[in-house]
Design brief:
The protein has a single domain, classed as Methylamine Dehydrogenase, Chain H, CATH 2.130.10.10. The longest helix is centred in the first third of the chain and has 28 residues. A hairpin with a 4-residue loop joins strand 28 and strand 29. The strands form eight sheets. It has a five-stranded mixed beta sheet, with no helix packed on it. The chain has one helix and 33 strands. It is globular. The chain is mainly β.
Amino acid sequence: MAPSNSHRHITILILLLGGCTLFSAMAEVAAQNNWPQYRGPGARGFADDAQPPATWSATENIEWRRDIPGRGWSSPIVWGDKVFITSVSAEGAVEEAKKGLYFGGERLKPSPHQHVWMVYCLNLGDGEIRWQRKVHEGAPQSTIHIKNSYASETAATDGERVYFCFGNVGIFCFDVDGNPLWTHRLEPRTTRFGWGTSASPVVHEGIVYYVNDNEQESYLLALSASTGEELWRTARDEPSNWSTPLIWKNQLRTEIVTAGTGGVKSYDLQGKLLWSLQGMSSITIATPYEYDGNVVVSSGYVMDPRRLIYVIRPGASGDISLAEGAAHNQFVVWSQPRAAPYNPSTLIYQDRLYVLYDRGMISCFDARTGEIRFDRERLRGDFTSSPWAYGGKVFCLNEDGVTFVLAAGDEFKLLHENKLAEDDMGMATPAIVGDRLLIRTGRRLYSIKASAAN
């Protein structure tokens, strides 16, 4: 018997719904295989469905490695089969970066040597350079700390365009095939002690957002992603900070969360201040991120008594600072007054918040309550790179290129250590894409993938 019209309509509806489900599944897989900004989607630093190996060395499980000329601490980002990264080379001798919590690394004068600011696109599968572009050349107009670089900002992409940022030089936009689209110049500004810049741009729904906190003229900037036109600029009463902003899309609204010395400030998408929270340390580097509908912010300069972690719920307005001695209020879900790290951002994975300290210790808290699970367990070395996670494990890369692999859980359990080459220095935060892990060191970029023998 031939099907009726109603049966045909039901069949078509089922096919359409199935197609939508398939499309959604494909979109989800595509998102998992992209790492579009610093610390990946939402700046969270983990990819639960990723499958890179948990063990590697300078030779084991290395799919490819590519020497990157010059110096840069920007992280790699990935879209599809393309990897994007930045670096700056000098024509003359350059002082090598020094490991450790290095005080006295200020340099009072910029380097007199000619430098070349470069952007690169590599093939994800084999590490071959697909295209490279010079975006600026000349002697630097600003100084950096001996541990910093002139290429410490991580690029961002929306899959159509790539936004490369070099603080005190400019934001340079290319399409993914390397065609230049626009440039927005950034005037040199003095940073605290001449340490240089590192805050990265973020892109959201056709707009590039960038925070420039310095000693002269701090601001939050919005640029058209397609043209580079300046849409608005909001002045910030902030000294130098190095924190990348978060576009926080919560159940009530979308806001731009920024962390600074003066406090946490959140703005609407037109740059109007929504709320603020006082009580940060005097230098802020870590990047905010979202967890369970809330936003997580930390600020932990090692020389300050206040090293706070905050978990903040949406809907705030005005000043939501904690009262003296309080650990929470209407909008602060919980806080820890002396737990935040300095350089690394914190990581929430499987409802636990991990804190990796620069001087080689790690702590774990219940992400919902702030209760301590384990406290300041010892690792080895100094840490600048932020921790990351996948496959039930937490990974911590030290400045000697050694990654400590921990079992995710309420107890401290070190599983093993992965050592790269002796001349590798690790300060950049890796990217996770599918079955690959991309680690950038001072000299090269590694793609770590399980070999066929494994």
